[in-house]
Design brief:
two-stranded antiparallel sheet, 3 helices, globular
Length: 73
């Protein structure tokens, strides 16, 4: 799965994105995405190995909100 070809559902479960995939959508560094998660700006899930994953629907909602804010300004 790449950020350029998203799949919203896989086997009935929501697609999870890596920090790198989220970063490419927002055009920021992956460390910025991790800081957003730590600050509570975006929700994340921890894998059993301790890696962060982000719900695609939540990421796309935040991206839509931020881009609509920029367009209205």
């Amino acid at each position: 799965m790449t950020a350029t070809t998203p799949q919203s559902r896989q086997n009935g479960q929501e697609q999870l994105l890596t920090p790198g995939e989220v970063a490419s959508l927002f055009r920021v560094d992956p460390k910025t995405v991790t800081r957003w998660a730590t600050a509570g700006r975006i929700g994340s899930i921890r894998t059993p190995g301790g890696h962060r994953r982000f719900r695609e629907s939540e990421v796309r909602t935040l991206l839509a909100e931020l881009t609509s804010d920029v367009r209205s300004a």
